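Quick one, tokens below:
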């Protein structure tokens, strides 16, 4: 089942379920005005009973029930998530990114060829051992979230803006000190994530030895959507992940290449800490899924489309503000 948050013609925010051919959205609260259908977060917190009721409503709906999907405005599924955690789950993405950073550092040296060979011998920009020992993550701003179709405002402090093709798991059932198998049962569903990154700002501030700050945190910088596909309807480890810029395919990867699985990330985080319903756990970038790996960055007016088979497509235009 695919669930969405949308705006009615009057501007009220509702949650709904897509019909079989994904042309119409059934307004769940309009059919059954239960507290669990007040918002997507309420539905997550309701657990199995809420999802079962949503499925019953959808299965009992006629083919022409609900609203024409093309006529509603989709919003991000959870406008203000309780927490977002973005992991680095794809080894090849790290290798590609570090290779590019090493190359750029060498190009600034008097003898780039000699410098590159020296950097490789010295292990400059090598993947740290801790990445293989445990999942690592940072916490993006939960307040800068937008959905598909909304404009990305280019932050004025950056000249190098980048996209990142990711997807993520929504927590349905809260838990603490859980095993990976138990963590898997905590997952409510999955959405696509575009982690917009100001690469020049990120590079400067991370030299201080802390995680990314303003290089990641600005309004409209975290894009989640277009829907949530429930965990029982999606295999998170066999999905194609496709990037298109202005309609042209730039890269294609697959979620099967995740070194750390979502359940590993959840179990690690839940050590001595409660993970709560509504939290969003992101995969990190799929190999070749960002401009850094290609040395190709965004321009004013570019349209970024990220597609994950089985979920849908997240599409946004990047706009510099005057």
């Amino acid at each position: 089942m695919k669930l969405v948050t949308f705006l009615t013609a009057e501007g009220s925010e509702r949650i709904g379920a897509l019909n079989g051919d994904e042309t119409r959205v059934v307004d769940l609260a309009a059919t059954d005005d239960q507290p669990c259908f007040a918002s997507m977060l309420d539905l997550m917190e309701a657990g199995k009973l809420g999802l079962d009721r949503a499925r019953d409503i959808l299965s009992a709906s006629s083919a022409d029930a609900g609203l024409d999907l093309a006529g509603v405005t989709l919003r991000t599924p959870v406008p203000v998530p309780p927490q977002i955690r973005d992991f680095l789950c794809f080894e090849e993405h790290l290798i590609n990114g570090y290779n590019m950073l090493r190359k750029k550092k060498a190009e600034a040296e008097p003898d780039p060829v000699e410098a590159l060979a020296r950097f490789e011998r010295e292990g400059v920009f090598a993947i740290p051992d801790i990445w293989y020992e445990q999942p690592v993550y940072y916490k993006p701003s939960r307040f800068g979230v937008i959905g598909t179709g909304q404009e990305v405002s280019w932050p004025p402090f950056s000249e190098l803006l980048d996209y990142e093709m990711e997807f993520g798991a929504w927590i349905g059932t809260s838990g603490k000190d859980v095993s990976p198998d138990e963590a898997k049962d905590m997952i409510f569903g999955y959405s696509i994530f575009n982690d917009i990154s100001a690469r020049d700002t990120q590079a400067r501030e991370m030299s201080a030895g802390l995680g990314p700050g303003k290089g990641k945190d600005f309004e409209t910088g975290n894009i989640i959507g277009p829907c949530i596909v429930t965990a029982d309807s999606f295999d998170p480890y066999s999905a194609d992940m496709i990037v298109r810029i202005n309609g042209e395919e730039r890269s294609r990867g697959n979620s099967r290449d995740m070194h750390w699985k979502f359940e590993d990330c959840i179990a690690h985080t839940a050590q001595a800490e409660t993970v709560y319903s509504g939290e969003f756990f992101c995969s990190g970038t799929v190999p070749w899924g960002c401009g850094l790996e290609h040395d190709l960055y965004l321009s004013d007016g570019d349209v970024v489309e990220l597609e994950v088979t089985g979920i849908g497509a997240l599409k946004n235009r990047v706009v510099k503000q005057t």
